[in-house]
Write a structure and sequence with these properties.
With 168 residues, the protein is of the alpha+beta class. The chain has four helices and seven strands. It has a single domain, classed as Aminopeptidase. The longest helix has 15 residues, at 104-118. The chain is globular.
Length: 168
């Protein structure tokens, strides 16, 4: 799985230090959940109990590698969420701060939107975005998503941006 500049693959145990580095960066997690960094132990628990077992039916968060250098720069993918009691499919994307502002999140998001539609047969996609996260709102807009509603997700106020495949 790849784009012009990026390669995507499943995380392995060897990738844990990178995963933990994302959780340790207050800028990266500013709009993730309560916006709090995680210790190595907390990141390890999330990695082993949520991320690695999360690869189901082609879904999950995939490590993003910069194609030219093969260096990990973030992760993205399609994950199942339950929003207001309804099963939804979210395109998620996180990048290490060093790689912000280069269009990588939009490139990864576009790849996973196409992947979700063409490979997984998904006809509705969302992004759960905290209101002050202007960069993620911009990415969602580039993916053709529009503000659908405001809600609370895991006790956090969020906006649901959505895209639905038009019926022909």
């Amino acid at each position: 799985m790849q784009t012009e500049r990026l390669t995507f693959r499943r995380y392995t145990n060897d990738d844990f230090p990178f995963f933990a580095s994302l959780w340790a960066d207050p800028h990266v997690v500013q709009f993730i959940g309560k916006g709090v960094t995680r210790s190595q132990e907390e990141a390890q628990k999330s990695f082993q109990e949520w991320l690695l077992p999360g690869y189901r039916e082609g879904r999950g968060l995939y490590l993003i590698l910069h194609k030219e250098s093969n260096i990990p720069i973030g992760h993205a993918g399609v994950v199942q969420q339950t929003v207001d009691g309804k099963k939804e499919y979210e395109i998620g994307y996180w990048l290490a701060t060093k790689y912000w502002g280069h269009g990588y999140a939009s490139e990864a998001g576009a790849f996973f939107k196409n992947y979700a539609i063409n490979e997984l047969g998904i006809t509705r996609l969302i992004c759960l975005i905290q209101r002050n996260n202007k960069k993620s709102i911009s990415v969602a807009s580039k993916l053709g998503m529009a503000l659908h509603k405001e809600t609370t997700f895991n006790t956090i106020p969020v906006d649901v941006y959505a895209w639905t495949k038009s019926k022909k």
